[in-house]
Amino acid sequence: MRTFPPFVLFLALLTTPLFAQKKTVALPATPGVSAATVERVVRALAADDMEGRASGKPGSTKAANFLAAEFQRIGLEPLPGLSDFNQSFPAYEARTAAAFVSLNGSNLSPDKFVLISGQPHLNWTEADEPAARTFTIGPKDNLLKEIRPLLDPRENTIVFIDPAQEATFKRVAGLVKRGGLRAEKPAPFTTLLVLAPAPVPPLRFQVAATTTIRTVELRNIVGVLPGQDADRAKEQVLFSAHYDHLGLLPAVAGDSIANGADDDASGTTAVVALAEYFKKQNNNARTLVFVAFAAEEIGGYGARYFSSQLDARQVVAMFNIEMIGKQAKFGPNTAFITGFDKSDFGSLLQANAKGTVFHFEADPYPEQNLFYRSDNATLARLGVPAHTISTDQIPTDKRYHSVDDEVESLDLANMTAVITAIGRSAAGIISGQQTPTRIAPETARQ
Ligand SMILES: [Zn+2]
Fold this sequence. Notes:
single chain, Aminopeptidase, elongated, alpha/beta, eleven-stranded mixed sheet, 10 helices, about 450 residues
């Protein structure tokens, strides 16, 4: 689950739920998912030796290899067109080292500017064409909101920031210094942020810097159980979760590893356990696709690449699973579904779980915007009934995105019950008896 920057505005979605009569499909009296698999997989993914599974770091490669081996063990097939379970795609990291920045003849001290560039060798002055766009940010302006688009420069820009904004400026400087992966190759443009009032014109400046752009290969892990009904096999049902997490964080009591046991080793474990479960069932009419996404936490790049490689019209449902390791606010044997009213996916699952001890509920935290904070949103924008199933009490979850998100805090028995309920309640969709309504793409935009 991603944290949205504070400047993302929450837009209430004024959709009207239209619940038609639901055909209830009797749940098969089959055994549930393997509790042993659940425990083994979640412990492996959340172990310290995975180092928090940060995108582009050795820990996430280790996790990817582990997941591919699980798909192999279970007997899944690669996605058509791929030779194995790896769906690779590039991400980019740009690091800019400024040699110097001078304004109207005087050099700026390094704590007074931030330089973001996609130009390997930058030698930039006021004489260069096209002229740099310059503007100022006042003491009361929303600095983060204003400069957000400039962090991925698409033109040459110089921004003068009022010194009253120093605290926020320092946060931005820290973020830029830490670097990070982006989905697109940086364009050959530069943003210069200066913590100072705009000088009296005419502006003269000189900026020299070198930027190193590194390409990093990321991998979704994708496995397929082909549909057994000739007419239905072209229709796909997705089961997904993201296996990446935050990596290392500032140490707390000597622990710096953000293990991400709940976020989202738990959901990734569900994908593996469900693959094993459905393989044993051996009766899926529709094709089942199991995906462990890369790079969710840093912007959802894995889901974006995955969705660019498929025909969304053939995807009849997406079960995205995020943070199911702890009990939901509704108690044990419950889970909630984000974007509940955007399709009838949730009410189908609710109806299918009737008569069992398990209940699916609508997302109780609409103000948290969870529908948009995970990989389902990418597919939903393409019209797929794509929802996230979760149990996390996110408004009060102190372990969320901390070094304390460890296996010891999970309720593995409840987690196994959640995964089993997903597997059983998906029966009607997998058999082709139920097809959730599509999400109107305009309601899937934020
Ligand atoms: Zn997260």
